[in-house]
Amino acid sequence: MTTINRTKVKELIQRENERYADERPKSRELFEQAQSSLIFGVPMAGMNEWVGDFPIYVEAGDGAYLTDVDGNRYLDLCLGDSGSMCGHTPQATIDAVTTQINRGFTFWLPTEDSIWVGKELTRRFGLPYWQVYLRASDANNAALSVARDVTQRYPIIVFNGSYHGHVPESRLGLMNDNIWPEPRGKHDMVDIRDGVVWRGTHAQGIEPTTSTGTRVIDFNDLDALEKALSTEDIACVLCEPAMTNVGIIMPDPGYHEQLRRLTRKYGTLLIIDETHTICGGPYGYTKPWKLEPDIYTIGKPVAGGIPTAFMGIGEDVQKVLQSQKVGKALKSIGGGTLSGNALSLAAARATLEHVLTEATYEYTISLCEKLVDGVDGIIKANDLPWHVLRLGCRAEWRWSKTPPRNGKEARAATDSALHELVHLYFMNRGILLTPPHSMVLIPPECTVEDIDHHNSVFAEFVSELV
Ligand SMILES: Cc1ncc(COP(=O)(O)O)c(C=O)c1O
Prior knowledge:
This protein is α/β, with parallel strands linked by helices. It contains 15 helices and 16 strands.
């Protein structure tokens, strides 16, 4: 097995960092200017996840590409962390948005597009009733509130290493290997770790008391799952079909079947968040894998990147909500003045009808297969202790020989120096990978030549290392 020369990695990071800075003087200058008016110098703190001493500033996106203010052009395989999975200029979405822009953006009243979209979501994902939000975070917050109202229980289960957006309770999953059961207090709504207070109180329907909490368990561990559920006080399990936020982690064969059986056995609702796994195909994985969630959430690319997200609920959940007065149900369903706006729905309709189609996925998945074959071949030819995984049109390579089965194993396989190097290396050669891992997503405008370019950069990267 080839071992990586750490001195070489250090040298390469320094060389690539210098090149990064030299080729982007205007971005650096803008970032310096931004320090005096923006928190951390960026409009959204997560934009600081990129490598380099400053982020690139975007001039324009165009199909699979974007250009920065210094005139560097990139094949964009990050795609706004999935928000632009449809590419930067999906024509059908642009046309629909342009038409709607001239007819008003937001009315606090429904437009006919909402009915088409609701029916389409049912066709794709199976759940009969839908609400529209601006972000997947909002849809997930609503889903937790609904689950709590329906079950009259408060604690939730999330998986170690998961991320579901700005959902305070679920962020415990992302933070560290803080696995349940542990001494009380660690998983309470008010949680103090490393001097930081985590407070999960903003979702509607949650009592901000320390008797509520989040239980974090490892994915693919059925014993831990049953143990956590058997307390019979869990409102819901919130999860993705396959984990994507500590890299890709596939479910063990039969895991989802057991998850569904056990949640039903203990009266716990199942929320499936398909915000990232919609990379798997037009039906995500919910329909193909027969996941049967009680509540379903999705966001990011569903309207081509125009802020839009959805929450779907099943018949049983709908019955409970309908038995409540509208005012009370509203508290748990949530929403917001701009949610369900005309522009989002026009964009969602066009995107679902014309962009996120079977034909598009057939093409992007075939390109992703080509990318993975190439990367896998290079890893094997060089006997590297790495692997590459594909999830539909998303792929990721990792610094471990075998795929991790849970968040703990995934964290053990991180290598921050190689991570920094690979991102710098690819950016300096015109390709954006997705931070904070080595993930790629293939947009519809990508070409075979783009994939060849990606794979030749990967080969060059490896040849410098070994
Ligand atoms: C699985 C999953 N769900 C929900 C979200 C939240 O999406 P947003 O930030 O658009 O609200 C994310 C964000 O990365 C995510 O990965």
